[in-house]
Amino acid sequence: KSLARSCAEFGDCAYDLKVLHRNNGHDFGPRPHELRKIFFDAYKHDDELASVDAFICAVPAALCELYMPFNKSLVVSVVMPLDLHRFDSKSFEQWIKELHAIQKDPRNMVFAWDVFDSVLGSAMSNLIIPTMGSLLAGSPHSEPY
Questions:
Q1: Strands 54-57 and 73-77, how do they pair?
Q2: What is the side-by-side strand order in the sheet with 109-111?
Q3: Is-contact 102 141, C-beta < 8 A?
Q4: DSSP letter (8 states) at residue 2
Q5: pTM, two decimal places
């Protein structure tokens, strides 16, 4: 159920979503928490979402904000720019607070695919964001999850 601009190419476009669509699925607007509440209210009794064990979020990583109220594991792939779809400093700062809360929960994982995203994401968020390679290799430089 993709909202990607290239979804038609792969035949996986989302057509039956209750809240998100191609205009707001990439841009949560100036009030992301309002969208999060609307999203939760629309899906809190949804059988498909109830069957999910974890949500995986990448572009934008902040998509995981929508899934926080469902009390499921979150896997956040930090991809630059970390402030993607945050249009003012207040909403970006709020996203960083949420990212801290996500990483603090032992059920969740926050990682970057490469060193560039790890270093820049860590600098922008004041978190230690390990690379997936370091997690898989058990590097002593990665934070335990």
A1: parallel
A2: 54-57, 73-77, 109-111
A3: no
A4: B
A5: 0.79
Sign of CA dihedral 56, 124, 3, 39: positive
**Sequence-ordered alpha helix ranges (H) in the chain:** 7-10, 32-43, 47-50, 64-67, 89-104, 115-125, 132-137
Q: What would the pLDDT profile of 46-86 be if each residue is shown by its tens digit?
A: 998 899 999 988 878 888 888 999 999 999 998 877 766 67
Return d(Cα 56, Cα 103) in angstroms, integer. Answer: 13
Residue 19 CA to residue 41 CA, distance in Å, equals 10
| 3 state SS of 107 | coil
CA dist 76 → 8, 16, 70, 109 (Å): 25, 24, 15, 6
Q: The tokens of 91 are what?
A: 């909403």
Residues of the chain with pLDDT > 90, as a percent, come to 32
- Nearest partner of 134 among 120, 119, 114, judged by Cα: 114
What distance in Å separates the CA atoms of residue 110 and residue 137, rounded to the nearest whole number?
A: 16
Q: Nearest Cα to 80, choosing from 50, 124, 47?
A: 124
